[in-house]
Design a protein that fits this description.
CATH topology: Rossmann fold
Distance between the termini: 35 Å
Radius of gyration: 14 Å
Number of helices: 5
Mean pLDDT: 84
Number of strands: 4
Low-confidence stretches: 134-141
Shape: globular
Number of domains: 1
CATH superfamily: Resolvase, N-terminal catalytic domain
């Protein structure tokens, strides 16, 4: 099992230090931290695509918050399913303890996790227009 971190900020002007500090605290090797500096409107991001190619069954992916994955409800749901069900990796969302797929692998835990993921994905997309960085919300829906 290898541990990876994924970091995303919307523009090259934004600072990813807070997310990087969290990954460093977890002692994730620098070579296993993938950083994108572009909009979360879709998953056509260079570092994201490189990360997905590296992930193997049993690996663990850390992300600071669900909106760092993206801003599109359906895409977040789809990638979560691909990674956890098809690739067999675990995901930990650092700012939402309940979104840790290492826990609650029984049916009830899965249902609760899926509900929380659905709600947070919805919030990530629906709050987009209120975000100061409107370019991050470009046609996310």
């Amino acid at each position: 099992m290898r541990e990876y971190g994924y970091i995303r900020v919307s523009t090259t002007d934004q600072n990813e230090d807070r997310q990087l500090d969290a990954m460093t605290t977890l002692k994730i090797p620098q070579a296993q931290i993938f950083v994108d500096k572009q909009s979360g409107k879709d998953f056509q991001r260079t570092a994201w695509q490189a990360l997905v190619k590296k992930l193997n069954h049993g690996d663990l992916l850390y992300v600071q918050s669900i909106d760092r994955l993206g801003r599109n409800y359906e895409d977040i749901q789809n990638w979560w399913r691909v990674l956890t069900k098809e690739k067999g990796i675990d995901i930990v969302v650092l700012d939402m303890e309940i979104l840790d797929t290492r826990r609650g692998k029984d049916l009830l835990g899965t249902i609760i996790g899926d509900l929380v993921l659905a709600l947070l994905s919805y919030v990530a997309q629906s709050l987009c227009p209120q975000n100061k960085n409107a370019q991050d919300c470009e046609r996310a829906a």
